[in-house]
Amino acid sequence: MNRYIDKFTEEEILKVIKAYLVDGLSHRKIQSQILGLPAPDNGGGYVVMNILHYFNIKGDKKGILTSQNINNLIKNATGNYCMGLKKIKAYFLEETKAENIIKGLNTDNIINTEITTLTKQRVGQYKLREYILDIYEHKCALCDIDKDDLLVCSHIVPWRTDEKNRLNPKNAICLCAQHDRLFDRGYFSLDENYNIKYGVKADYKIINLLKHRNFRKPIENLPDKQLLKVHFDSYCK
Ligand SMILES: [Zn+2]
Predict the structure, then answer these.
(1) Out of 90, 93, 148, 191, which residue is the most buried by the measure of CB atoms under 10 Å away?
(2) Crossing angle of helices 117-135/79-102, nearest 10°?
(3) Is the pLDDT assigned to residue 104 strictly greater than 80?
(4) 125 C-alpha to ligand 1 centroid (Å)
(5) Å from CA of 192 to ligand 1 middle
(6) How far is the CA of 234 from the centre of ligand 1 (A)?
(7) Is the predicted pLDDT of residue 110 greater than 70, yes or no?
(8) pTM for the full model?
């Protein structure tokens, strides 16, 4: 019986294992950086140690994936250790798959049963966010906010309503938290020339807030005009 394994999401558990096997981080570092838990000098990595022990991962395996091939390790592994490695491998494959979709490359639809759909979606969302922040040079497309933790990978047509455009970079814009919310709630959209187009809900206070704002284009993958039209028609009218 493991005290911690059910208290975290699959994604968190996988990040913990990855940080230990790939990055070779200490228990304490993983505990504070990945799980966001306090990790005092004395016994601070206990939660992480406990999780890793569930997968039979002890000190001799720290950073093992920097020097050894994961397929070889899986071949010789047994039990929960083997299961953990297979999940990590699936996680890497999902990352590559998401990257290929975002870059518009052909991708084999590898069916991977080792990790849950939820984790797959999160991996995709995370990869898209990384890419969108990069092409907007880590700055809101409408203002000067340039702090990553205030920036949002804002979907034009929401994630939940349009499955095929979930990882389409032309269906996303890098916005700060405030501009994301105004966009998401239909206070404004962008027209075919990427000028601000107000929604019916926008009163003079909102218009005052936005009237001097100009859309700054990304270095590639401009937002899709058809999707912007769908956004305006669905949320701004
Ligand atoms: Zn902004």
Answers:
(1) 90
(2) 40
(3) yes
(4) 20
(5) 20
(6) 22
(7) no
(8) 0.85
